[in-house]
Structure formats: C-alpha cells, structure tokens
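By convention, each integer encodes one residue's backbone shape. The lines below illustrate.
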Amino acid sequence: MCGRYTIFTEPQRLMERFRAEWPEGPWQPRYNAAPTQSLPVLLNDGTRRIRLLRWGLIPHWAEDPAIGNRLINARAETLTQRPSFREAFYRRRCLVLADGFYEWQRAPHRRIPYWIGLKDREPFAFAGLWDRWEGPDGQVIESFTIITTAANERVAPIHDRMPVILLPEHEEIWLDESAGPAAWRAALRPYPADRMIAYPVSPRVNTPHADDPTLIQPYPLP
C-alpha cells in the first residue's frame, strides 16, 4: 500500500526531468501528500503538460465520488480483474510525480514510519491510472490512483507492498498507447533495491495536517 508520499522537488527540475510544462497557478511542495489532495501527474494524452489531479480514483461510471476514498491504490497483479481499474489500464495511464514515499513498519505496540526514496534523491514517477468523473450537477473531478506491487529487498522489512516506481526507460512505454498491454505489464515491477534508501522519520507524519521539511529528516528510534 502507498498512503502517503512526498513531492517537494522544484517545478523547474520536474519540468526538466519529465520534459513537460508545469501547470499555472500556485504550488505547495508536499512533504506529506495525502489522499484527496490535488497532486502533479503527467497523463497519457500526448500534451506533455503536468496537471494537478485528486488522489483517489473516481471511475467515470461511479454514482458517488466518495468511492475515490477507497481507491488510492491499485494492485498490479489484478488491474484487469477489477472493474474500477480495467478500462483505465488500457486507456488512461499516467505518471505520478514523486520524490519519496512513507511506509509503516509494525512493531510491538506501535508502527514506525519510514521515508523511502532513491539514493541520488532524484524525483521519479509512480505508475498510475486516472479517470474523469462528471456528476449530475456538472461537477467534474479528475483523479488518479497509484499502482502497487510486491516489495523489493529494501522495503520488505518495512512492508510487504510498495508503489511501482517506473524505471526511466519504462516511463514513456507506460504513456505510449502503441506499446500494448504486455509492455505495460512488464513495466510494473519492483524498483531495484540497491538504488533506494529507507530510514525512520518522525511519527508526526501520522497526522495528515503535518506538512513541512522536518518530516523527511532521520528520526532516532527509541
């Protein structure tokens, strides 16, 4: 599962890294990105324009947008078996821009939060799916979900699942309509463990309202 992540990299760096335009309007770096927030993604619509979508997928056929609160993640192994994700896998894939994520390790009487990212501290992309929902009153919500897979050797001691971090060479394949399902599925693999770091952080991250740079600083275990 991936229930919180970070995206604090400067917009100029993100534009260079993903060769895309940044959306107009103010942007708040997120050190504790949480479901229902509007966060940067790059859609497979051919525009190379980063957009802010709501985290928590609302399928276009849903009667109640609250379903998005339960669809923040999609398991890579069952994408084509779930009605909520099947069509999006074939038609609406996206890159979810990030530079780290949080996971919680179970310990006696508590859970220990960890920040997990790349050794080089560079931004990366989660594999995601997106959709566009329109309500009977004309309200439009564009939303996304993050795909998860089995944890690699770095993450496994903390949690048995991790978000799919796409290898740079797989990012364009994931967005490419002509690549096809076999190529898309092949990209949904655990990221190489030797390229990642993980360390404990403050339990303040447990509160969604906490959102500042101190959250990603190493925190000593008691």
